[in-house]
Amino acid sequence: MSTTPSQTVGPFYGYALPFAKGGEIAPARHPEALTVHGYVYDGAGAPVPDAVIEIWQPAPDGSRRGAPGSLRRDPVTGAIIGRSDVGFTGFGRVGTDADGHYELHTLQPGGVPYLSVIVFARGLLHHLHTRIYLSGAAGTAADPLLAGLEPERRATLLAVPDGERVHRFDIRLQGDGEHEETVFLAFD
Fold first, then answer.
1. Looking at CB atoms within 10 Å, which of 77, 107, 119, 127 has the fewest?
2. Is the pLDDT of residue 131 over 60?
């Protein structure tokens, strides 16, 4: 028996994957909340307006359980009403806007210096895995993945400061001759 071949992903995300407050991983108005934002670009350097960015991370104390409630539904209508606004879930999903921009609000992960990212976008046969290493995070310099990369490739995984408690991280699905493709991870 052979496996079914892959098909390209999307573009159906506005209907199926993003949900209300999907980028709000941190509890509302948390004093230590960080903003992570950026753009998703294709191989020609054009923004991708229909990509979905999914974030997975441990809580600041290093726990990986997360609070329930990222994707809550109204019990009467079944409509998605989003997260509860009080617990840290460790999970978020946000679509890019018409300019290819995304934004999420989270807390510094504990135990690791990065956020785990999955990218879904048109034209991809499979979703892509990468990481966002936050500037100033403890353990970044000693991270084995970063240490094993050449400096120009390593730079594609490092978020850059973009204001107080704000980080910018652009995702490039392919290199465009001027910019390196973001490092993507393969899992077997």
1. 77
2. yes
